[in-house]
Amino acid sequence: MKTIITGGAGFIGSNYVYYMLERYPDEQFICVDKLTYAGSLENLEAALNNENFKFIKGDIADRDLMYRIFKEEKPDVIINFAAESHVDRSVVDPDIFLQTNIIGTGVLLDACRIYGITRFHQVSTDEVYGDLPLDRPDLFFTEETPIHTSSPYSASKASADLLVLAYHRTFKLPVTISRCSNNYGPYQFPEKLIPLMIANALKDKQLPVYGKGENVRDWLYVKDHCEAIDLIVRKGTVGEVYNIGGHNERTNLEVVKIILKELGKSEDLISFVTDRPGHDRRYAIDPTKISNGLGWRPTTLFDEGIKMTIKWYLDNEAWLQNIISGDYQKYYERMYGSR
Ligand code: NAD
Ligand code: DAU
To answer: Is the C or the N end of the chain the one with fewer CB within 10 Å?
Structure first.
């Protein structure tokens, strides 16, 4: 079997590449990635010499290139991780989110239709469901929860999901979609909450918590997400959406305090800053469908996963320094400078 993994040089995609190479030593994997600010070949260093792995630099919205890749490589399965993924960036510059997340997905779907595949899997997000109130812990996102987006990022991901489902209905394309909650783990770019707080705490810089830090996210260790996607691709029902989450809700302030405690740093580093516009209050996944239907269960508890993640950042300080010493400084100044 030959699988194209788009966006495989980013956070979840690179974890997926490693997961798959280890699990399926007889299969072929091709990563197609544009290498934006969020993607790096450094993330794939340990895969590049594997004879079952190939890297192709390319933009999923580049129709000619995608058709050429499909024609030459004849993939069986496409897993689309490629996306602009950061909500705050989508507030400042929505355009690239429409281009990559919607147009790019459309190009891949057309390539699948023309050249034929056995499965197209879209890696989507729980953000397509909007948010839940903080005072209703009894409510969860199910696959039937209406799409109700808040940010240009989530609107672009929801648009892509609708395209994927339309290609299934109209062209009978064999698709599946997964909608996962917040991931954490190795290789996450330090613009996202957990790695940003680790990076700042290590330098004794202020930790910018939006609003009062009361917003709730449902955290899942990245390897559990990878396992769920693989299960859906191999055993899931074509045309279906599967929610992925492990019932691990925490307020942002709780998460930040855990990181400070683990690193032995003072809570005085916490700085409450102006809230994100349109900030979603709470995400919480009901994973009943994937649990009952496919037997998926997360295996990494948050207490253990956050320790492993912090250790990874400590052990890979060069990786982190490489990122935060470049253009990242400009990004940080733009986002947090006068906040
Ligand atoms: P990321 O930003 O770390 O990585 C995205 C990757 O896509 C990068 O390697 C980047 O170079 C590549 N890319 C961007 N534009 C591209 C283009 N036009 N053509 C080819 N490659 C391109 O993102 P992530 O956090 O790893 O998320 C991966 C996917 O999972 C996204 O689709 C995201 O919406 C989804 N998701 C993320 C989370 C999370 O918590 N991070 C949770 C649920 C779903
Ligand atoms: O739920 C899945 C989504 O999770 C994915 O689809 C997105 O790609 C991914 O980026 C993530 O979105 P969030 O907006 O939830 O993640 P982020 O890490 O940006 O923020 C998590 C929470 O922390 C959110 O409530 C905002 C808050 N936050 C974030 C940053 C970067 C802060 O308080 N301070 C910060 O500096």
So the answer is: C
Q: Contact, 201 vs 263, CB < 8 A? A: yes
Compute, in angstroms, the gap from residue 125 CA to the centroid of ligand 1: 11
CA separation for the pair 262, 311 (Å, rounded): 10
| Distance from residue 266's CA to the centre of ligand 1 (Å) | 33
- 136-168 in b/e form (b: 16+ CB < 10 A) is eeeebbebebeeebbbbbbbbbbbbbebbbebb
CATH annotation of 2-188+221-247+278-300: 3.40.50.720
pTM: 0.98
In DSSP notation, 18-36 reads HHHHHH-TTSEEEEEE---
Query: Which pLDDT band, with edges at 50, 70 and 90, does 339 fall under?
Result: confident
The yes-or-no answer on residue 153 being catalytic is: yes
The angle at the Cα of 217, spanning 330 to 36, to the nearest 5 degrees, equals 35
**Residues with Cβ < 8 Å from 322, sequence gap 6 or more?**
42
* Whole-number Å distance between alpha carbons of 55 and 213: 40
Spell out which residues line ligand 2, taking CB within 6 angstroms.
85-87, 125-127, 181-182, 192-193, 196, 208-210, 215, 217, 252, 276, 283
pLDDT tens-digit map of 251-296: 999 999 999 999 999 999 999 999 999 999 999 999 999 999 999 9
The label of the residue with tokens 């290139």 reads: 65
Dump pLDDT digits (tens) for 58-113: 999 999 999 999 999 999 999 999 999 999 999 999 999 999 999 999 999 999 99
